[in-house]
Amino acid sequence: MSEQDPLWQAFKQTSYQASGHGKRNMQVLKDAFADIDGSLASDGYGTGKVIEDFQEKIAKFLGKETAVFFPSGTMAQQIALRIWCDEKGLKKVAYHPLCHLELHEEDGLKELHHIEPVLLADETRVIELEDVVGLEEEIACLLLELPQREIGGQLPDYETIVSISSYCREKGIKLHLDGARLFEIIPYYQKSAVEICELFDSVYVSFYKGIGGIAGAILAGDKEFTEQSKVWKRRHGGDLISLYPYIVSSDYYFDKRVSKMEQYYEEAKQLAALFNQCHSVKTMPVVPVSNMFHVHFDVGKEELEPILIEIYKETGVGLTSYLRETSESACSYEVSIGDQYEQVPKVRLETVFELLNEKLSTR
Amino acid sequence: MSEQDPLWQAFKQTSYQASGHGKRNMQVLKDAFADIDGSLASDGYGTGKVIEDFQEKIAKFLGKETAVFFPSGTMAQQIALRIWCDEKGLKKVAYHPLCHLELHEEDGLKELHHIEPVLLADETRVIELEDVVGLEEEIACLLLELPQREIGGQLPDYETIVSISSYCREKGIKLHLDGARLFEIIPYYQKSAVEICELFDSVYVSFYKGIGGIAGAILAGDKEFTEQSKVWKRRHGGDLISLYPYIVSSDYYFDKRVSKMEQYYEEAKQLAALFNQCHSVKTMPVVPVSNMFHVHFDVGKEELEPILIEIYKETGVGLTSYLRETSESACSYEVSIGDQYEQVPKVRLETVFELLNEKLSTR
């Protein structure tokens, strides 16, 4: 995804893009602050109207007693697990092997908190009740990521979460929701955020994925839990004198997009269907359950890149700026439907897939 | 300092304030972004032009090989000490008893990094060479805070730092600079930032104290050190997808104010002299060595508050929004000279001190 990359360059020059909310440039901040009165006071080390109002608003949306704004999910989730481990006096948690904490945090959970994870399920599927029941070790907390991003955003049935939640409560295991993409799965479950979150003891949500803000996260739970999380937030160096640049923008884009998740979900299903009609392409999941899915090509990255570049140039529509090599003869990328998809003229999109299918069938 | 507080209310209503850069409201961000082109790309997890350019600029200013932007000094400093402790295989550091890590970070250094501090000097003075030479325990790192904020911003002689630095190098002790207010002490030492920083192995500077930005910090040192600090930054949850709201504003206010530190310093000496002419008032230090000092009143907070409120109302000039009770018959507050001092009409300021002296002499 470097500036020298020809696919990235070609993508950048397209008039329409089928994924995302658009460029992550500084206009994102300028738009969010355009109508903000400059005399509004900053938050100050976690206090003040701007942070307290937003925390209350999201706590209410999630059906939790209280919520705390964090600069990042990495910080919020390590802290959630630490609190539950300390409460039980047991530094062991369980999560999926492709959990964010396992892949993307340089082992912060282990290095800073000395918490040992037990890995449940595997790289082909989500965690099921049997995995939890079958646990041979005692744990303080189970983390469920909904949807499981690294496998295309797959979800367990709602009933599965209900039964996992009951089981955990019975066994004294705390259940934590990695809801980085929680807003995005509400349309699939046809449940409110409250109905999903009430199955969990603590919930993290992000404001720069489906919501498209600049950065920032909320950690929600009961007051005793969130009060402890504030102490750990200070220890981590996350209790900044001013978090308002992230809070104001999170609030702005939350209001703008939380009601569009149903649309993104429908568009994701539409786009996935177009891919699945093409030769040598399949999506994971085949039918998306949120605004996201992964596209897998049975074509090597080297071979596919010039094909995509040609299509971008011919149609003015970009599908992706990068390809991830999964083997010598296969590659993939991730789709997150956002505001840009609706702007792609349907006729152009049809041409894209006609060309793609043709080129992949005749190579 | 609550909104119900009469002193805070009276201060808020004054036309001029003798301390600070002004309100920490959202205009601070809006001003910094007013001339920013919205098409400028965000940084992305520590990479990209906006973060790399600023890191390079500050590294150069400090005379260090490399620099890393952090959301907070709390995060940056714990990480610096952790790296030096790991390098030596000894989890012990030394710092002043009123160090930020000891007072304001909920023991993050101990709770997250299991590093044990040895306290040097005491609440009346800064760390001297003898304190370091007299250390009975082996340590991995010594932290010096210049100026020592909690005692009014006192400083050791430059020669003292030189000799501490030589001693530490000889003994294999890393020397870390808590330079939260480094820019502010350059005029006193009459040394460049480079000349001060070359005495230290690692340096932290802040962008929301004298510089008056929104939040953010830089940690600087050699490349091996800063590369490790990036790994820890991710572990702490500080490697945000976008830090540009803090970077752009830090850069903007750095350019605007770094050259004004000499003026703030002169004004601090001027203002301190006015206080020291008053009955029952003295400043710490008597002659400031930066833009900051503490004002100590031999008057109880309850008695002083109505006096200050009266003066604010009569002159339209505010001195402080709060008083910290130090005993039943004494209180204090902190002055940090910023852009607001120069705007206070000299005639009004003279009246303030005439009134203050009169009221304190005749009570």
Question: Can you give me a brief rundown of this structure?
Answer:
2 copies of one chain form a homodimer. Chain A is α/β, with parallel strands linked by helices. Helix content of chain A is 44%, strand content 16%.
Task: Report on this structure.
The structure is a homodimer of 363-residue chains. With 363 residues, chain A is α/β, with parallel strands linked by helices. Helix content of chain A is 44%, strand content 16%. Chain A has a 7-stranded mixed β-sheet with strand order 2-8-7-6-5-3-4, sandwiched between helices. In chain A, strands 9-10-13-12 form a 4-stranded antiparallel β-sheet, covered by helices on one side. In chain A, strands 1-11 form a two-stranded parallel ribbon. Chains A and B meet through helix 2, helix 4, helix 6, helix 11 and helix 12 of A and helix 2, helix 4, helix 6, helix 11 and helix 12 of B.
- What is the approximate shape of chain A? globular
Question: Termini distance of chain A?
Answer: 25 Å
The protein's oligomeric status is: homodimer
Number of strands of chain A: 13
* Proportion of beta-strand residues of chain A: 15-25%
With strands numbered from the N-terminus, the spatial order across the biggest sheet of chain A is 2-8-7-6-5-3-4
Low-confidence stretches of chain A: none
> Hey, which two chains have the biggest interface?
A-B, 52 and 53 residues
| CATH topology annotation of the largest domain in chain A | Aspartate Aminotransferase, domain 2
Radius of gyration of chain A: 21 Å
What is the count of helical runs of chain A?
15
Report on the biggest sheet of chain A.
Answer: 7 strands, mixed
CATH architecture of the largest domain in chain A: 3-Layer(aba) Sandwich
What is the string of helix and strand elements of chain A?
HEHHEHEHHEHEHEHHEEHHHEEHEEEH
Helix content of chain A: 40-55%
Q: How many domain regions of chain A?
A: 2
**How much is the average pLDDT of chain A?**
97
